[in-house]
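Two quick folds needed for the group meeting slides. Do the first one here.
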Amino acid sequence: MTLQELRYLVALADCGHFGQAAEACYVSQSTLSTGLRKLEDSLGVVVFDRSLKQVTPTSTGYEIVESARRIVEEATRIQELASYALDPMDRSVQLGVIPTLGAYYLPHVLAQVRLAHPKLRLLLREELTPLLLAHLAEGKLDAGLLALPIDDPGLEVAPLFVEPLLAAMPAGHALGAIDRVPVEALALAGLLLLEEGHCLRDQALETCQLQGLKNEEIRATSLETLRQMVAMGLGVTLMPILAGVSPSGQQVVLRPLEQPGASRSIGLVWRRRSPLAATMRQFAATLACELPPGTSAISADAA
């Protein structure tokens, strides 16, 4: 039994076709078939049912494939650990960012990150929190920038900063004349929210103590859509301070909330067993040193 044969086995289970599996392994179909036949002979069991249109593991084969998958993943991790030890910041990182953060936060820090780590290549993808966490668990993303807390023992969390939430209302609205807006007044003024799946929606409901809010007439698909809805006088909302610079100028008025501590905490998360753990710790340290305007560091007690 060799590691290469186990790679063939996993590839065939994933592809269900000898030709596609061989292509994925960069070998000829005959080489892959011979390797798998040798593996089955050494084990004394048939791992794949070849009588079907799509090659499928047998009942015993399913268990063998899953064990092989873990072995291949660990072997890959060993190779990556050795490679990353040379220079943990010379690599590409698949970074997920929640949509209500990326466009407003990254412009503040990317220039500093490039100066600090010129060999680090960030491949950015915007995703809602549930999908971002799922892709982290599946290895499709290396790390994520999102709102805390994240309660997952398989993830390491580096708190970065606290971002205040502001009341946003159309120009000329009565609440715009108040220095600090009570959340009760905001809730009664026609609160507009993002659609389900956005963590900012849940934070707005929690801040306004409206977890049971029903009968919403309109839900926005993005923070910019929400801003435009407020500008048109359709209601009021809560907006993170980094998104406060509005392209609609004076059409949207921002005011602090009377509610103390109305904010969200932002952090960088990655898998604890990731071979990029050293990379992510250095990346997080760089981000933590570059606080965006209007935000504050997360205290050790809060973290």
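Then this one, please, same format:
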Amino acid sequence: MKIVYVLPGPISRTEGGRMEMQRRLEVLRSYAAPGTEVDIADVDEGPASIESLYEEYLSIPPTVDLMLEMEWRGYDAAILGCYGDPGLDAVREVTEKMIIVGPGEAGVMAAAMSGYRFSIITVTHSMVNPLHHLVEKAGVGKKLASVRAIEVPVLELAEEREKTVQKLIAEGRRAIKEDRADTLVLGCMSMGFLNAAEEMSEELGVPVINPGKIALKMAEALAGAGVSHSKLAYMTPPKISSGTVKSSEGLLVKKERAAEETQ
């Protein structure tokens, strides 16, 4: 089984970014079952980090293109490497058989199975409303206790890891006490790669869902069971299925083509 973790941001542009990609790859491979091959890839362009819906939307076109390339390379499943699952439905529409797992969707589904009420702990308040929407879209809104933010930007989470973990624990404790949460979800992939979930769970006494780990395990489970996405749910865009255009590139009207059509 071959699984690829696709980052919707151009992390590999810097030496530090390439080192972080390698570190994340090693972490993901440590989660994988024997016989599972895990790789990592990032887009050529896009937001440096995603902390708003606008940045999510900016990341979608290059991510869809990269996902299509990964399917062409023969991967059985791909993980969309952002907790907000930007473009998840779109990728499922244009791919054929490759399983596409969104860590946000996988995380809240796992949380809904782990308890009665869960809270998501995310980075900044700009992501609170989008994550409420994500939970409703996943169909588990009745189990959501709250979405809380520690007010630390994505790119600063790992600078002082221990301080970040303590903020996560403190916010998690408030969610349990004030919102009656019995399960917590880390609402950011960079949080997941801090390897803090087990530490938080031991400190707080409740399950803490690591979105990176649960996404990988979900990908293994679905691909291993031979399950693929329903094309009645995620229909191939009509212009592609009818042969009007041959690829996602053909769906775009570029400046040169638009000028020709108006002449």
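Slide caption for protein two: The radius of gyration is 19 Å.
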